[in-house]
Amino acid sequence: MRQIKLARNVLLGIEDLLLHKLRSFLTTLGIVFGVGSVVAMLSVGEGASKEAMDQIRKLGSNNIIINSVKSVEEESTSTTHSHMSIYGLTYDDYARVTETFKTIRRTAPVKLIRKEGRLGERALELRIVGTTPVWFELVQRPIIAGRVLMASDDNEHAPAAVLTEFGARKLLAAENTIGQTLRIGSDRFEVVGIVKSESGQAGNIQIPDQEVDVYIPINVATAYFGDVTSRRTSGGFEREMVELHQLIVQVDSIENVEPVANGIENMLSRFHKKKDYLVSVPLALLRQAEATKRTFNIVLGSIAGISLLVGGIGIMNIMLASVTERTREIGIRRAIGAKRKQIISQFLIETVVLSIMGGLIGIGLGVLVPVLITYFAGMPTVVTLKSIVLPLVISFAVGIIFGLYPAVRAAKVDPIVALRHE
Amino acid sequence: MIREAGSNSDLSDAAKAKSDIEIIKLEDARKIYQMGGSKVNALGGVTLSFKRGSFWAIMGPSGSGKSTMMNVLGCLDHLSSGRYILEGRDVSTLDDDSLSEMRLRHLGFIFQSFNLIPQLTVQRNIELPLYYLGWEAGRSADRARELAEKVGLKERLNHRPSELSGGQMQRVAVARALANDPQIIFADEPTGNLDTATGKEILGLLTELNEQGKTIIMVTHEMDVAAYSKQRLHMLDGLVGRVEGAEE
Ligand SMILES: Nc1ncnc2c1ncn2[C@@H]1O[C@H](COP(=O)(O)OP(=O)(O)OP(=O)(O)O)[C@@H](O)[C@H]1O
Ligand SMILES: [Mg+2]
By the number of CB atoms within 10 A of the CB, which of A2, A393, B112, B116 ranks highest? Predict the structure, then answer.
């Protein structure tokens, strides 16, 4: 019964507002932009946190990832003919990192080689990942078939290869692929297992799992393929010598992640003349995400706050004008027997309907903005239920707050005076 | 044509028996306006009683206190002192909400300038008291249709007041005043904005209502309008002067 009555009152409010369509629409603009900013703010914030959380889940919160990077000077000189660029992490770095820090639990080295591979009839460009068994534990890749690499593979220089689910599909390999021979160049490997592929993109830190990956023991990789890779470019050959492309370090506890990362950074800087490595801490990504979120919250929050304030005052202004305009109507309603609180609710409902309509338009707009932000700024955004419900609540609150004063003014209209004035 | 008899009051039997005769009673009613330093006695101590089913015309020169009297009797204004007993109930001490409730349940109003709500259709205007009484939509619509038919405006239900003539607007106002089935109808110069012919139609309507048992209290300047009433009360300077037709 109460709901029916409220629904009826809301309909009456909408009818009154539709009498002045343009005015009602213009009145809500402030709310539209305010709510739009709130939605955008929330979805950028959510996007940043979600991205960070995803990466942390993928990379492990206790992990530190060190990538080899070509330094800037190297980049500019490497364009000359038949120059060989030497950079990145070394086997020595791997040994030193593992030995120096007591709080490091385990370390996995990663060596990347691009080569064509062939399984039966199918030939494909592969990314060969030379690593140790530890790697599979650090990045948590469940086994689908067969097994992962084992310490004995490394020690015995066994030509064992592990495929990803994705890679196996690409190579048209079925489960009975286990035990089959994978040819890489002139070398033969035995497929010993298939692991689950990594889901999605891991942001700016890449684990070697984006393409058709093949995991082989690192010792085998070094022995078979060496450290030098050459690539044909427009200017001739581009040759690179990189011992290790990545180190994944797992620290024993979260508190030690950042101290160890700093320690590694210090240590590496002593042994490397140029900065040809990059230490990343997934945990730091969260901090970074929080910082991004904060910046966006401040900027968009201010816009939202100001818009909502201006919008609220605009609505209040229009409602006050409406009260004055409708003094006689109020007088009539009161004379007929409307109580003060019924007049209050009439005007309050009208204001709330107005601000919620603005809110809905604003949400529509606000849902569009994150899409544009993602498209043009490449920033991840997520529109959650929260980023729609909260703005609705806000527009409701704005309606109540700024509608109260005009509604009370309306209720104070003295019917005798109102009916006398023409 | 109009058939709206019977009481909807919710009083005890004893009070009802008493108020059956005297529906309105003023005891030394005063309304004083403070104008800067000077006081205006808009009502200067009025004692009177109106019987159920009477048809009063309140007359008097401008500024004599007719409108003030109407406002007090219509529960729109408080007395400065004295007592006002309506349907056997002392309403002089009631708060704003209770006065609204009295108006909503027991009184109907007809104004000189019609006072319809311009953006609402004829039907919605007639339904207005029912809306505040909490009637559900279907029942109100039926009632509005019934009343519109009674005042001869069945075909105009979906029109807005601006599309009606003065006489038609006043008919809508009469229909609205009847919606809550009130015992008393107040009419403040109901023909003031109408030509003689349409004015007579409205007065005929009021007479009919009175014949069906409604108490009617009408303010007017004009003798020939007052002629429709059964009782006349002449006011002067906030006091009751000559009273005609009260003895029965
Ligand atoms: N709100 C008010 N403030 C001050 N004085 C008032 C007020 N309302 C009425 N009065 C005074 O009270 C007296 C009675 O006024 P009222 O309006 O009742 O007269 P009336 O008989 O209805 O006159 P009219 O025929 O011109 O409508 C007048 O002297 C008027 O000036
Ligand atoms: Mg008057």
Answer: B116
Are both A48 and A133 inside the same structural domain?
no
Helix (H) or strand (E) holding A395: helix A386-411
Report pLDDT for A273.
Answer: 85
> The domain containing residue A218 runs over which residues?
70-275
Selecting from A19, A329, A415 the residue whose C-beta is nearest the C-beta of B76 gives A415
Q: Which of these three, A253, A275, A297, is where a domain ends? A: A275
Contacts of B62 in chain A (CB under 8 A): none
Condensed to tens digits (0 to 9), the pLDDT of residues A11-52 reads 888 887 887 788 888 888 889 988 888 888 888 888 877 877
The model's pTM is: 0.70
- Is 60 exceeded by the pLDDT of residue A162? yes
User: How much is the pLDDT for B204?
Assistant: 95
Q: Number of folded domains in chain A? A: 2
- Predicted confidence (pLDDT) at residue B8 exceeds the cutoff of 70: no
Q: Write down the residue that tokens 């019609």 correspond to.
A: B114
Whole-angstrom distance, CA of residue A22 vs CA of residue A317 = 15
Q: Which helix (H) or strand (E) holds A283?
A: helix A282-325
Q: How many residues does chain A have?
A: 422
Q: Is-contact A406 A323, C-beta < 8 A?
A: yes
Per residue in B122-161, pLDDT (tens digit) is 999 999 999 999 999 999 999 999 999 999 999 999 999 9
The residues, any chain, with a CB within 8 Å of residue A141's CB and separated by 6 or more, are A148, A164, A195, A196, A198
Q: How many domains does chain B have?
A: 1
| Shortest Cα–Cα distance, B248 to chain A (Å) | 32
Any B CB within 8 A of A146 CB: no
Give the helix/strand (H/E) hosting A279.
strand A277-280
All residues of chain B having their beta carbon less than 8 Å from the beta carbon of residue A334 are: 100
Residue with tokens 């007090």: B72
Residue to mutate (ligand 1; options B31, B34, B35, B40; most atoms within 8 A of CB):
B40
Neighboring chain B residues of A345 at a CB cutoff of 8 Å: none
State whether A176 and A34 are in the same domain: no
Percent of chain A with pLDDT over 70: 91
Is the domain of A101 the same as that of A244? Answer: yes
CA atoms within 13 A on the CB side of A284: 15
pLDDT tens readout for residues B225-236: 999 999 999 999
Atom of ligand 1 nearest to the CA of B235: 21
Residues A342 and A237 in one domain: no
Averaged pLDDT score across all residues of chain A: 84
Position B14 in a domain: no
Domain that holds residue B107: 52-79+94-244
B113 contacts A422? CB cut-off 8 A: yes
User: Which residues 6+ apart lie within 8 Å of B24 measured at CB?
Assistant: B48, B49, B50, B73, B84, B85, B86, B184, B215, B217
Which residue's alpha carbon is at the smallest distance from atom 2 of ligand 1?
B33
Q: Are residues A160 and A213 in the same domain?
A: yes
The residue contributing the CA closest to ligand 1 atom 1 is B33
Q: Which ligand is nearest to the CA of B31?
A: 1
Q: Which residue has the tokens 């529960």?
A: B75
Nearest CA to ligand 1 atom 10: B42
